[in-house]
Amino acid sequence: MTDYRIALIPGDGIGAEVLPPARAVLDRVGARHGVTFRYDEFDWSCTRYLAEGAMMPADGVDRLRHHDAILLGAVGWPGVPDHVSLWGLLIPIRRQFRQYVNLRPIRVFEGVPSPVLGAAPGMDFVVVRENVEGEYSEVGGRFNRGFPDEMAVQEAIFTRPGVTRILDYAFELAATRRGHVTSATKSNGIVHTMPFWDELVVEAGARHPAVEWRQEHIDALVAKVVLDPSRFDVIVGSNLFGDILSDLAAAVAGSIGIAPAGNIDPTREFPSMFEPVHGSAPDIAGQGVANPLGAIWSAAMMLDHLGHREAGDEVMAAVTGVLAGSPVRTRDLGGTASTDEFARAVLDAL
Ligand code: ATP
Ligand code: MG
C-alpha cells in the first residue's frame, strides 16, 4: 500500500467544482493500484484575499513542502487584479518549489471536434514551457511618471542553467515520444535573449543525438499550430511564448476546459503542482456545469509524476471512452451533462 499526502487548493469559482471529480477519480483508480491518498485542503483564494488581504498565509509555501503533490483548481476573481492571484500564490509556489517545467499536453479526443479544424485532426503534442524565469520577471520599473517621456522597462532573464535544464527536459521527453523537438523563439526581433536560447538549443541537440529538432519563430509557429498541428511532438518555449502557445493550442483542440498543466520539479526535491489550464470562469461558476476534464487529466498527470503511469493511463482511457462512446459531455463541448454527470460517467468507465 502506498499512501500519498496531497495538498488540495480549490481556489475560486469553478476551481472548487472541478476538484471533487478529480479527487473521486484518484480514489477510484488508486484503490485498484494499491494507492491511497490523504488530502489536506487549503482555502487559499481571492475570496481569502478579499477577507484577509492575502491569497495565502505568509508561511503558505512552507505548509505545502511535505506533501507529495499539489492539486489546484483555479485562482482569480473579478475585482481582484490578476497580478494578485499570480504573484500572491502561483508564482511563489512555482519558484520556491523550483517547478521549472510547465508541462501542457495537447490532444484532440474522438468525439470532440476542434472548433477550428473539425473532426479528429491529428493533434498530439506537449508544450514544455519554462516556468520560473524569462519574461515574467520583477526586474524593471516605471520612469518619468507623468512626464511626456514616461516609460516602462521590463527585463527578461535567461540564465544558462535555467535554459539548459528546460531544454534537456524537452529533449528527454521527446525521446520517450516521437523524437522531435520544436523550439520557439523570436531571434530576429529580440536580439540578446533569444539568440542565446537558440545557441543552447544547438548544444542540447548535440547532447541528444537521437532526437530531431528544429527552431521556429514564434509568429510563424503559431500559424502552423493552427493550420497543421500534426507535425508537432514536443514544443519548448520561454515562459511567455509557452504560455501563449499552450492556451492557443488548447483552444484549437476543443475547449479550454479540457487542458491540464503540470508545474514540475523534475528533481523531486519539492512537490509538483497540477492544475487545469482554465481559470475560475465567473460566468458559469455556481451552476454545476463546468467541464471537470481539465482537472481530471491534471490528476492523471499527477499519477504519472508519482510513478503510477498505468493508473494515469487508465484514467485517460476512461475519459476517451466516455467521449468517443457516449453523448455525455459538458456544455462547453456541445453537450448537456453537468459537472457531476460527466464525472460519474468517467467513474463508471473506470
Ligand atoms: P484566467 O484569467 O484565470 O485565465 P479567464 O477569465 O481568462 O481566467 P477562464 O476563467 O478560463 O478565463 O474562462 C474563459 C472562458 O472559458 C469562460 O467563458 C469560461 O466559462 C470558459 N471555461 C473555462 N473553463 C471552463 C470549464 N472547465 N468548463 C466550461 N467552460 C469553461
Ligand atoms: Mg485569462
Automatic annotation (TrEMBL):
Isopropylmalate dehydrogenase-like domain residues: 5-346
Keyword Ubl conjugation: no
Listed InterPro entries: ICDH/IPMDH, IsoCit/isopropylmalate_DH_CS, IsoPropMal-DH-like_dom, TTC_DH
UniProt cross-references to PROSITE patterns, sorted A to Z: IDH_IMDH
GO molecular function annotations of the record: tartrate dehydrogenase activity
Cofactors required: Mg(2+); Mn(2+)
One Pfam family linked to the record: Iso_dh
Record bears the keyword Iron: no
Transmembrane segments annotated in the record for this chain: none
The protein's Enzyme Commission number: 1.1.1.83
Top-level lineage group: Bacteria
This protein's UniProt keywords: Manganese, Metal-binding, NAD, Oxidoreductase
SUPFAM superfamilies: Isocitrate/Isopropylmalate dehydrogenase-like
Reaction catalyzed: (R)-malate + NAD(+) = pyruvate + CO2 + NADH
Family: Belongs to the isocitrate and isopropylmalate dehydrogenases family.
PANTHER family associated with the record: D-MALATE DEHYDROGENASE [DECARBOXYLATING]
This protein's name: D-malate dehydrogenase (decarboxylating)
Source lineage: Bacteria, Bacillati, Actinomycetota, Actinomycetes, Pseudonocardiales
